[in-house]
Structure formats: C-alpha cells, structure tokens
Amino acid sequence: MSLNRRSLLMGGGAAALVLTVGGGGFVLTRRPTSALAPWRVPPALNADPRLKALSYATLAPNPHNRQPWLVELRGEDQLVLYCDLDRLLPETDPEGRQIVIGLGCFLELLRMAAAEQGLVANIEPFPEGATADRLTARPIARVRFQRSDDVRPDPLFRQVLKRRSNKEPYDVGKPVTSEKLTALTEAAGGGVRVGATNKPERVAALRDITWRAMDTELRTSRTYLESVRLMRIGKAEINANPDGIDLGGPFLETLGRLGVLTRETLADPQSTAFQQGLDINRELIETAMAHIWVATEDNSRQTQLEAGRAWVRINLKATELGLSTQPLSQALQEYPEVRSHFEEVHEMLKVGDGSRLQMLARLGYGPQIDPSPRWPFETRLRNV
Fold first, then answer.
1. Torsion angle defined by CA atoms of residues 136, 141, 142 and 144, in that order, rounded to the nearest 10 degrees
2. Are 47 and 60 spatial neighbours (Cβ–Cβ below 8 Å)?
3. What is the maximal distance between C-alpha atoms in the chain?
4. Which runs of consecutive H residues, i.e. helices, occur in the chain?
5. Pairing of strands 193-197, 324-327
6. What is the distance between the alpha carbons of residues 200 and 203, in angstroms, rounded to a whole number?
7. How far apart are CA 9 and CA 171, in angstroms?
8. Exposed, middle or buried: residue 152 (CB in 10 Å: 0-12, 13-18, 19+)?
9. Fewest CB within a 10 Å sphere: which of 196, 240, 283, 351?
10. How many CB atoms neighbour CB 327 within 10 A?
11. Cα–Cα dist 73/79, whole Å
12. Model's pTM, two decimal places?
C-alpha cells in the first residue's frame, strides 16, 4: 500500500511520525531489498536451462503469496513439481483449489521461460493421479524439457518481470475500453471460458458482491486470522520470510515500531487498525473500473491447473496493455460462511450446470508498485 493513501486513512499526525522516528535515513532504508532480489537476478545464461526456467516460474502469482511449489530435478532434462503441503490455506481454501491455480500459473511461466531457451516443456499433469477433496504428496506435474527448432518465444514473456497484482486504488476517471477487454479475453488461450465487463451497472453489481464476500471473510475470525498469521510487518520480517502478506514501507514500519500496527491490533475487530483495514479494502474494491473472470466446464484438478495457466496469461497481457489487476477470490471460496456469495456470483455471471468460476478480478489503472517478495528459486528445490 502507498504511503500517501495510508497517511490519509491513518491521519496526518501519524504520518508525521515517519519523519521523527529514525529520521530520513530510516525512510530510505525500509525497502526489503533481499526479498525482492529474485525479480532482478535470473541465473547466468550458461546455467542448467531448467534452473533458468524455474527462476521465472517462481515469480508466478499465487494465493496469499504462499509460493507453494517444490521442485525435484531428475536426470538431465526432467523435473517434478510438488505442492508444499505446509503452505496450504485450510480456512480460506479448504479444498486447495486456489493453491492448484497458483501452481498452474507456475507451470505456464515455466513453459514460457523454457521456450525462450529454445526448449519445449512437455507437461504431464498429475502423473500419479489426484484427489478431489484435498491435496496430497503426489506430484502435481512431471515436466520433460526437449530442444526443438520449432518452438517460438511467447510475446507475453517480456512482461514477466513487470507483472504485478496491484492492490492499490485505481483511477476512477480512466475507463477500461472494450477493446482492451477483448484483448485480455483472447490472451487466455483455450480450455477455459473468459468473461469481462466494463458496463457501469455490471461493474457496480460486482463491486457490491466482491465487497460483501471480502467483508464476510474479514469478519469471520478463523478465516481472517489465517491471513493475520501470514502478515509480515516491516523490512526485517519480509526479508526473513518473503512469502505471505507483506506490510512494508516506512510508514507501516513506523506504526509497527510504535505498537499501533501489530498482529494483535490487526486481529482485534474492535481496534482502529482492524476498522481501517476494512476501509482500505472497501476503497480498493470501489475503484474497480472493469472486471474479468475465468470459468471452467468442471472443477477437476487438471482444470484448476488450466485456469491458472489462463490467469497468468491474462495478468501478463494486462501488464502489456498498461492495466492493473487484483484477484478478488473471496466470493469463489468453499467455506460455509461465503456460500451465499458463491451462489450469487455464479448466478450473476451465468455460470451453472456443473461449471465453475475459478478467478474473478478487478481491472483499472493503478500506480506503479514494487513486486511481491519471493523466496529464491534455490530454496524451492527438494534435492539440492
């Protein structure tokens, strides 16, 4: 979140503390540089091409930035992708559907990064089968890399290092054109159905349902506390654990040092921090200028992977077009408290008869932001 917007919400007096606690040097040194390093330092060109591909794949979008991928290198041309079962979200994603979508995003970036090196990444999903109710230690995918003169680089790969999930307010004076929505839907590829709207009445209805679903999640203690436990407050925490929900920057870190912004205050629904968190999230949702969604004919694990591959392509195309995106998945989740929102949004978007909404996001024009922190790809290798 930006300093200016949070300053307006938290109050000018609190903002002034940034200038008095630690001085200007404090402000200038609050960027979590090591946690952002994976976005700047890909492996050398002469490295194992699988490692180079992995260095880009680990930048994929994923729920709560859990980075649930574990990779095992096999032989000279294969790797096996697993889900790190310690990184699941049992309260908000009890079936692991969103985690699998994130793994699909990972596989699509892996394929694109391989193509940049003249390699085809032959992906075999769930080679040992998959369970529908929960994720297990079985592999998510087996990938074999094969050199080919026919492979062509994907134009969207140029956007990988620029891609963001932008959780800032969007410019409400700048509409998203129908031409850009068409370009986004065409970028997804086959295997999924993509819908989008910029019609004011439809956008208003989606703003409403996405806010009500988010409000339910934030006011349901067990689902909200799952997020609170994953919050990293300030540079030191973000660098030490570059996953989860980062709350960084000089303003927020100052509030943390003063005891205003802590996990305890955030977890207390009567606290100022909690109430202002509600205000911030509602403000974000109310600046949606368009919405886009991904639906599938069924909800199998393989289909969830395909939804992830489509989503990251949409995200990359949006980057190319200068658009910002933020997933709003609360109304698509499977826990009981959001069931009414789930049914409402499926009916609203005419998704029925066994089909499933997999992704829903707001679109608009947001400010430039830093990427999300990442673990170095080397930390996600199982046999190194």
1. -160
2. no
3. 62
4. 3-10, 12-20, 23-28, 33-36, 49-57, 97-115, 178-187, 200-219, 221-229, 235-240, 250-257, 263-267, 272-286, 301-320, 339-348
5. unpaired
6. 5
7. 18
8. exposed
9. 240
10. 20
11. 4
12. 0.93
The 10s digit of each residue's pLDDT in 258-271 is 888 999 999 999 99
Cα–Cα dist 69/61, whole Å: 12
pLDDT at 111 over 80: yes
Instruction: Return the pLDDT at 25.
Output: 56
The amino acid occupying position 168 is E
Instruction: State the Cα–Cα distance between residues 68 and 87, nearest whole angstrom.
Output: 6
Q: How far is C-alpha 123 from the geometric centre of its chain's CA atoms? A: 22
Q: CA 217, CA 206: separation in Å to the nearest integer?
A: 17
Tally of CB atoms within 10 A around 236: 13
The tens digit of pLDDT for each residue in 87-109 reads 999 999 999 999 999 999 999 99
Q: How sure is the predictor about 45, in pLDDT bands with cuts at 50, 70 and 90? A: low
45, HSE (Cβ side, Cα atoms, 13 Å): 3
Residue type, 314: I
Over residues 197-234, the pLDDT tens digits come to 999 999 999 999 999 999 999 999 999 999 999 999 99
What count of residues does the chain have?
Answer: 384
Average pLDDT of the residues of the chain: 91
Q: Which tens digit of pLDDT belongs to each residue from 5-35?
A: 333 333 334 433 333 444 455 555 778 999 9
For 168, the token pair is 């800032």
Share above pLDDT 70 across residues of the chain, in percent, rounded to a whole number: 91
Phi-psi region of 118 (alpha: psi -120 to 50; beta: other; left: phi over 0): left
Structure tokens at 85: 């079962």
DSSP 135-177: --SS-SEEEEEEE-SS----GGGGGTTT-----S---TTSPPP
